[in-house]
Amino acid sequence: MNDKHLSSQFDSELSAVSSRVMEMGGLVESQTRTAVYALAQFSVESADQVLELETRVNAMEVDIDRELSSIIARRQPTARDLRLLIAISKTIANLERAGDEAEKIARMVKSIISSGAARALPASELRVASDLASGLLRKALDAFARLDVNMAVSILKEDDAIDREFDGFVRKLITYMMEDPRTISPSLDLLFLAKAIERIGDHAKNIAEFIIYVVKGADVRHTSMDAIESVVR
Fold it and tell me: Which of 58, 197, 59 is nearest to 137 (CA)?
């Protein structure tokens, strides 16, 4: 078997595993959107849909990881190919964790509904942050499919907007609790939900950092935005 044939087979395997990542990402994106809807509408049915998807997402992570191990063992890739496989492994881990956050939101929504506290919670306050996080995850998947470093940089910047929304929301909750101690319990529920939403944005940000790692060969985690932009230029 000649080298060209081997290379063609390897490219086919990379393409196949990348497609599985996008499929898994689509499931997690659906989980996130449905969790946000469940929160906005206090829908038990939507929350249950999120929980049903969790099993499929977990199974896909295990399957893709197994395939990655097989490819690395058989092909012994180097340079960019190896970086891509490492990035895929880290990406599916972040997708699974984003799915976990969506699951947390769904379980909390069900708990709030069963307790009868749904109407007392100003959940609409979370809508901006949840829409940002859901959109950021979608954008991260698109950037990963294209290995688009410029889009990856814009994702890193947008994650700062989610962080600002979260910080502002926490300040509002503190004010509510100080003014009326009766709001402490529902406010803590909202804080739990807000943190889960913020973490989904963080996982999208991590995926964006892996894209830069694949294309540029630079690890930009815990790096300033100026330094990241310098790497990408």
Answer: 197
What does the pLDDT look like over 222-233, one tens digit per residue?
888 888 888 888
Q: How far is CA 145 from CA 3, 63, 154, 166, 224, in A?
A: 27, 19, 16, 29, 25
pLDDT digits (tens, 9 = 90+) for 141-175: 999 999 999 999 999 988 888 888 888 888 887 88
**CB contact set of 229 (below 8 Å; sequence gap of 6+):** 153
Q: How far is the C-alpha of 118 from the C-alpha of 52, rounded, in Å?
A: 22
C-alpha 152: how far from its chain's center? 13
Give kind and range of the element (H or E) at residue 68: helix 44-75
CA distance 25 to 91: 9
pTM score of the predicted model: 0.89
Question: Tokens 């944005």 label which residue?
Answer: 201
| Side-chain-side CA neighbours of residue 186 (13 Å) | 17
Q: In this structure, are residues 63 and 20 in contact, taking their beta carbons and an 8 Å threshold?
A: yes
